[in-house]
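agent> fetching stored inputs for the pyridoxal-5'-phosphate docking request
agent> found them:
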Amino acid sequence: MTRAFNQRISDALMERERSNLLRSVQTLESGNQSVFHKDGQSFLNFSSNDYLGLASSSELKHSYQQAIGELGVGSGASPLVTGYSAQHESLKSALTEWLGFDTALFFSSGYAANQALLLTLLTKGDLLLQDRLNHASLMEAGSLCGADMKRFRHNDLAHLESLARAERSTLAVTESVFSMDGDLSDIEAFVGICQTRGMLSMVDDAHGIGVIGDNGLGACGISELKPEILVVTFGKAFGLNGAAILCSEEMGQYLTQFARHYIYSTAFSAAHARALLQALSMIQTQHWRREKWMELSAMFEELLSDCPEYVSTSTPIKPWVVGDSARALALCSSLKEKGVWTTAIRPPTVPRESARLRITLSASHQHQDVLMLANQLTRFSEEG
Ligand SMILES: Cc1ncc(COP(=O)(O)O)c(C=O)c1O
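agent> prediction call returned; pasting tokens
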């Protein structure tokens, strides 16, 4: 029996290695900032989702430190036991008022929030329609939840509509900003179709919240129509970690009663909730952070748009598509030698032959950082 497991494990690892798809954990010796240290070398970091530069902001660090001094470091329990505090409640009020939902439930990660929603809501006989590029957390929960899952072509809402079935309880799910491509979905059209076809709508706003829309309102800031369920995560523009599901009062009550990821998991701490509230206030008021990455984005475009690997996006996510996995790895290594850190994203995370560098810009980058990156990318592109 053990031999069978050993064989399976070694076969899978060998196959990953053979196809240049082996992944490895990277240990940083400093925090995840725009410049970090690793193995005694410093690197410009173009591989972080800290789009607004909040993760290392002195203002947010100070607020978190103060909250820890006052409230301690751990919540000690799940929300329904003794893990939910007045700080969570304040965060809930601020978030629901800002985004226009009745209620919010907090989770330790976006992965858990997405899993909780799909696994709690859907059952055998239901129909689940998902954009084919939705995140792994949504796809995995979709295949485990018992519903009949169909994937519509990326951002093809006519295809979504053609899959709708009036007689079946249906949930349709899209991301607002697609994590590996940096492109946007048309939230208003998506929600509109869901409403006319009697489908429940859900938007994963992990990469949109804090970044797109007026005042960083995310998906809710670019659409007149709101989805019934919105998932926001705190590990990207918020600079921290955790997530929330925003929904109606009744849906919130249902999830509170039945969502196992909510009921049986330790809540993030009160100090963390206080820091998230501070991050929210910075997102709402510090417009210069969004203006900064937009300025860097315009510079990136001006310097690189003639290269065939360049993909134009209106978000801080800048895919640099090279196609072949080995070539993506080679580019990554060559950038590292020059002190520039990017991550090669390879299948199965992205479709075959579309290996890429997932480059991300942040308000914490400087103009000379983008210039340095662009010079290296241009050199590699010209060398073919
Ligand atoms: C679209 C999307 N949803 C959900 C998640 C999961 O969020 P978390 O990192 O908080 O688990 C991610 C993570 O990268 C994501 O890109």
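agent> quick read of the result: The chain has two domains: 23-52+287-383, 58-285.
agent> awaiting further instructions
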